[in-house]
């Protein structure tokens, strides 16, 4: 985890508001710097900024509740979310061993964690978010799927002090990304 203020700014590289095109350009420009910082701290940055060509998910074969569209996203968002999840899942699955505990920090409606839980019933998935509405949505999807390997925490991620084997997050807001990185490093 970077400790230097300037480095941390590079990791929390974007303001919450602003023109999406400008924000995207800033992020793209910052990617090599972020990659370097992660590497300096021995964090693997496999696939950083790459498109996932090895699609690991056949959405058509999944029940509707596993798919992000089951989480009430509009079709465009749902398509992008599918691609993001494919990228993340293709990196997470090869790391998993039976019995592992995966925590999805800032899980929102649980789009990523639900796919992992569905594909790996032999692993435990923790979904954590501080927004009740999102956790309720995730919870009802899990219930309809009948998954038994998911636990929920409605809390700020800073308060989570359980152990885990793999920590992940997708689109954590602002400094939450840094906090997740810190949690993962401290748990190594
Ligand atoms: C942009 S949403 C992403 C949700 C989900 N990961 C996805 O990709 O659809 C960011 C989520 O992070 C949660 N969040 C932000 N800061 C948090 C914190 N400190 N602790 C727990 N959750 C947090 C918000 O409630 C929100 O649900």
TrEMBL record:
Residue stretches spanning the membrane: none
GO cellular component: cytoplasm
Domain of life: Eukaryota
Residues covered by region (Disordered): 57-83
Domain Methyltransferase positions: 80-186
SUPFAM superfamilies from the UniProt entry: S-adenosyl-L-methionine-dependent methyltransferases (SSF53335)
Matching PANTHER family: GLUTATHIONE S-TRANSFERASE C-TERMINAL DOMAIN-CONTAINING PROTEIN, PTHR13369
Protein name in UniProt: Methyltransferase domain-containing protein
Organism whose genome encodes this protein: Clytia hemisphaerica
